[in-house]
Amino acid sequence: MPVRSFFLDHLWLKTFSLVLAMLIWITIRSSVEREAHEEAKTFEHEPVALLADPSERRTFVVDPANVSITVKGAKPVIDSLKDIRAYVELSSHAGNDGNYRVEVHVPAGVALMLVHPKTVFVRGVSP
User: What is the C-alpha to C-alpha distance for residues 28 and 43, in angstroms, rounded to an integer?
Assistant: First the structure.
């Protein structure tokens, strides 16, 4: 097989393969660079707030009262992050005692990685 035909036969297929390989390489490289500029931060002993119906008159006890929250995001955003809010929504369950999933509000540009523990036990106490 002559060298000329090695390069010129099926030129459109070879060009397509080269362009596709370059697109894959650019995508992977940008993903790796983006992850290199991200940072994780853990907030220990964050209090769990309760969101209850305003007509609810009982007092509630949360066990455990604090959770550990790990978030990930761009380094400047994570460095300026001061406050993360963990809460349990009681209004959807009419204030029944039991285990509730801990929800976390994080600002834009920040991803929630881990909440420990994921659930807390909420018990209503009569006034």
Answer: 31
